[in-house]
Amino acid sequence: MKYVDEFRDPEKAKTLVREIDAMVAGFVREGRCSNKRPLQIMEVCGGHTHSIFRYGIHRLLPEAVEFVHGPGCPVCVLPMGRVDDCVALAMRPEVIFTTFGDAMRVPGSKLSLLKAKAEGADVRMVYSPLDALQLARENPRREVIFFGLGFETTMPSTAMTVLQAKEEGIGNFSLFCNHITIIPTIKAILDSPDLHLDGFLGPGHVSMVIGTRIYGFIPAHYKKPITVAGFEPLDVLQSVYMVLKQIADGRCEVENQYGRIVPEDGNRAALKAIHEVFELRQFFEWRGLGSIDHSGVRVRDAYAEFDAERRFAVPNIRIADPKSCQCGEVLKGVIKPRECKVFGSACTPETPLGSLMVSSEGACAAYYHYGRIDTSALDRPRATNAQAADAKQESPAKAVA
Amino acid sequence: MNGQAAADVLPLAETASSVDRHAAGDRRPRAPRLRDTTINMAHGSGGKAMRDLIADIFVGTFDNPELSALEDQAVFSLAGLAAGGDRLAFTTDTYVVSPLFFPGGDIGTLAVAGTVNDLAVSGAKPLYLSCGVVLEEGLPVETLRRVAASMKRVADRAGVAIVTGDTKVVERGSADKLFVNTAGVGVIPRGISISAKNARPGDIVIINGCLGDHGAAILIARNQLALQSDVESDCRPLNSLVAAMLAACPGIHCLRDATRGGVATVLNEFAQSADVAIRIDEASIPIREEVKGACEILGLDPLYLANEGKLVAIVPRDDAEAVLAAMRAHPDGAESAIVGVVRESPEGIVSMRTVFGGERIVDMLVGEQLPRIC
């Protein structure tokens, strides 16, 4: 923990905030942004969203810069139909359905896995796919299905587990594969016409696997700066500084703030396992974003015996998102969570309509838990140059939930 | 219950020692030792098997005159209770925990400490507990014996007697090994008025030590994580600590033990009951490194982890130093710390200044904390 605390040093944060303030004050003077028209930086990864709210990083920044919370929470982008498929699998009497904890509460059209469990399904929370494999060894007469989800961060451990199952010849283990891949997703966001992003914080854990080189198209084609960022509060703050510095310098590059973890070329062994087991799907359905080409992976034919979709009759239900749900617009950063029509009323953490309200990394849940009231009523830890420079502009009224 | 046993517990201030005296001056025959090694349905049937189980495990272990009378109820004199204060406190709690035994305690220590603490945080002096158990067919008798011994040990430490009880056995699969319910009564001394509604702007928030030990110990004991650690549950009765705090400041405004839902939940209850804001300072909150580490790995927040020996106190500003000093001088409060202040607004909201200098809302927990995927 001592090692971690170094990345939470408030004194270092103050220095960074001062420099960010000065830079943004310059932008405001130049008319490049204002409190009403802030620079928008998207953090792609849900882990960043969580850090930002947990440490109140958004409140340390001048108002002329804001975070847009991206689609990087794999639980959040799970469409309802896939959850219904999970429930259908879990309800089979021979099945032990295993899942990561935070997928338990994601609502399907009728049931979540948590509720399916109460209805009699054998649903078990695991911390790793290897736990699921162990359950398969211990319960040879049951079919153990692992609910694989996540970006490239969790893909290698799922792939390694399938390889292990094959090597040991474990016949009662299979994978319900819902893994998704980050690059097509970022492309889809960048291609969206209603988007006005000024830069990206790149996902840290995903990049540990896929490296940083792969993001080259973002500055090259879309002319947006990106900094791959770590998850401690100083990491996030420094990465914001680096993105802003690129803007100030008129540069557009892939930078790596998380160099202590993320190698330029990624992790070769992990990538090899991924490519051995998985291949791209034609398309994959996302909550709020619709179908995105080549954004999901499936199990290759060589490992078909471990593919739950081939072993069992998966209903493959497609269900439209609830009409009132604006998860898609939140995911693309078009609106803030509290601007959604049902935020805090029909959609709360107790009764989530959209999955952004479910996971602790979902932007809506983070807003609800950490920031739903007008924080100006609390002590403001800052009095910034940017605010002073922009004092005549009234800050946008913040809704009180 | 005969009048003699009731008279024996007077005066109330000597309840603990009167229990000891009876243990020493034993005039009852020792209970027969149960021969069975496993609980079966007969142990709940009302017949001889049940009588033997109760006599050996419960009456023998808990060892006090009220229980030994083997009536359907324990009886106390009103005058004896009235001597200790002017109000009764009465509470009940049911204990289910997996695993039954964990580092730092077991379901028995929880069942006594938990109910004692629920009484203590009203300012009451806890006196008598009941003990109801639901046993799953197949439970090793030795397990029950160990749990009863734990209950007795904690009851003695807290100075309470377990004076009445109930035993039920259910078929295998109908319950998970062993459930325990305890109810308790205590007497609140005149002049003590503790309520969640009493928090006032300017008051100081104090906790009596490191947060999340119990929750982390249970998580690790479940062994699903392949984590190893020395974290022990903080499970303990807090009535002695509360007595020391009230001696230092009889006007303590709010007290609550921070069990399920953790300190965050208690603070929210205070803020909402009294229509005040509470602001805590993350840097001042004591948390063990091991607990922090487990939380980092699992994506859990120690503010929401369960405790079984931690309380949150809200005290008038002028008394804060005296209360803190009294707490730190007590073995159950050596790591006590001032962690926050009560403010006027925004009403009903708990916020925290983070170690990083930012500020965030500390909300009520929704459902269970679920580990994050990555």
Fraction of residues in helix of chain A: 25-40%
> Can you tell me the number of structural domains of chain B?
2
Low-pLDDT segments of chain A: 375-401
**How many strands, which pairing sense, and closed or not: the largest β-sheet of chain B?**
7 strands, mixed
Structure description:
The complex is a heterodimer of chains A (401) and B (374). With 401 residues, chain A is an alpha/beta fold. Chain A has a domain at 327-373. Chain A is 38% helix and 15% strand. In chain A, the strands form four sheets. A five-stranded parallel beta sheet of chain A has the order 2-1-7-8-9. In chain A, helix 12 (233-249) links the parallel strand 8 (226-228) and strand 9 (254-256). In chain A, helix 2 (10-29) packs parallel to helix 12 (233-249), helix 3 (46-54) runs parallel beside helix 16 and helix 8 (155-168) crosses helix 13. Chain A is globular, with a radius of gyration of 22 Å. Residues 375-401 of chain A have low confidence and may be disordered. With 374 residues, chain B is α+β, with helices and mostly antiparallel strands. Chain B has two domains: 37-188, 2-Layer Sandwich (60s Ribosomal Protein L30, Chain: A); 196-361, Phosphoribosyl-aminoimidazole Synthetase, Chain A, domain 2 (Alpha-Beta Complex), CATH 3.90.650.10. Chain B has helices at residues 3-8, 15-24, 48-62, 65-68, 78-82, 107-120, 141-158, 213-221, 239-248, 262-274, 289-298, 320-328; strands at 87-95, 101-102, 105-106, 125-136, 161-170, 178-188, 204-207, 254-257, 277-281, 311-315, 337-343, 350-353, 359-361. A seven-stranded mixed beta sheet of chain B has the order 8-10-7-11-9-12-13. In chain B, helix 6 (107-120) packs parallel to helix 7 (141-158) and helix 6 runs parallel beside helix 9 (239-248). The termini of chain B are far apart. The interface between A and B is large, with 54 and 30 residues.
